[in-house]
Amino acid sequence: MLPISYAIRNLFRVPARCVQIVLGAALVIVLLMLASALSDGMDAVLRSSGSERNIILLGSGSEDSVERSEVNAAVPALVAASVPGIKTVLGRAAVSGEIHYNGFLTPAGGAERRQALLRGVTPAALLVHPEVRLIEGTFPRSGEAMVGRLATHKMRLPDDSLKVGDEIQVGDTKLTISGIFQAPGTVMEAEVWTDLGDMLAIAQRDTISCAVVRLGKAEFGDVEVFTLQRLDLELVALRESEYYAKLSAFYTPLRAMTWVTAALVAAGAVFGGLNTLYAAFSSRIREMATLQAVGFKRPALLLSLLQESLLATMLGATIAAAFAMWVADGITVPFSIGTFVIDISPSVLSIGPAGGLVLAIVGALPPAWTCLRPKLPVALRSS
């Protein structure tokens, strides 16, 4: 068996070639890490945005999009009066009538208008979305708006462009920012909340998008019975968690495309690494034959070549992990209905050693076989 020091010495024999192999492995692994982190981040924010205790009442036929839904504005009051066991806070039923609207917002200072996610609400929204916390200012009244902590990232604006006291314009309506809120891990952090009456005027509608019900002692079936009894309202009941799970499934092809793109770029890097290793190992056919002549078996030589490749790919994996932690961890990424934060978690970091091992084996076996395949007399005569 050849000592590990032999593999280490050969790895650094040609520094330029070593750097090429290590950086190629680092590129492949960092792409796989980022693809995994992007997919996990989007899925996590969508799934955590819905609560098992919340029921969404949507217009029949609009189960896949709350923005297209139309619900009679009287539904929140009817539900609160008709369904026993709804959560109450200080005697007030936790039922929130809301309008979800995707429109254009013009920030203060004459900046270019940006597409924004707007939600028309009443104070009851805080009863059904307890994760929402004001971190500055007040809840919006008529003529005001409350901005999510990550709304600027969604609209690709500077962090300080939407401050309390600034004036924004939505359509022909000017609103003053009254507060900043957070709702960690949910899509709501990328939204702008306005008074429900103002949003009815902005969207030019007399219906709301949905009614969100917070369950207390009641169960999902109790709310569903209400929708079946009031056929005139044309409602359908969904658990909020189920609604966002459907959205997560809708974005599955997008996450798959992230993996496909990463895989295609990684494949190019792998083939480049194979060419480098073929060149490196083919120049050592006589060296391998000499070692066989002095008594080393081919399996021992193959193991040494694999060790050399594994050292390079693990060094690349270390570089990839450091790069991902330093550059990508904590970055906020916008998508169509919100934002999510890239988290280089332990599961993402585990791709490093696993990918390094696979790359070492896949990258080293074909050129190693080419190097060790010639018979000993032929190999000793090779140039």
Secondary structure class reads alpha+beta
What is the helix/strand order? Answer: HHEEHEEEEHEEHEEEHEEHEHHHHEEHHH
Percent helix, as a range, is 40-55%
Overall form? elongated
Description of the structure:
By secondary structure, the chain is of the alpha+beta class. 50% of the residues lie in helices and 21% in strands. It contains 14 helices and 16 strands. It has helices at 4-11, 15-48, 75-82, 125-128, 151-154, 196-203, 220-229, 240-250, 252-282, 285-293, 298-328, 346-349, 351-372, 376-381; strands at 54-59, 71-72, 88-89, 92-93, 95-106, 114-121, 133-137, 144-148, 167-170, 173-182, 191-195, 207-208, 210-214, 235-239, 332-335, 338-341. Helix 1 crosses helix 11, helix 2 (15-48) packs antiparallel against helix 9 (252-282) and helix 11 runs antiparallel to helix 13 (351-372). The model has no long low-confidence stretch (mean pLDDT 84).
Architecture blueprint of SSEs:
Elements: H1 4-11, H2 15-48, E1 54-59, E2 71-72, H3 75-82, E3 88-89, E4 92-93, E5 95-106, E6 114-121, H4 125-128, E7 133-137, E8 144-148, H5 151-154, E9 167-170, E10 173-182, E11 191-195, H6 196-203, E12 207-208, E13 210-214, H7 220-229, E14 235-239, H8 240-250, H9 252-282, H10 285-293, H11 298-328, E15 332-335, E16 338-341, H12 346-349, H13 351-372, H14 376-381
Parallel strand pairs: 6-11, 8-10
Antiparallel strand pairs: 1-13, 1-14, 2-12, 3-4, 5-6, 5-9, 5-13, 7-10, 8-11, 9-10, 15-16
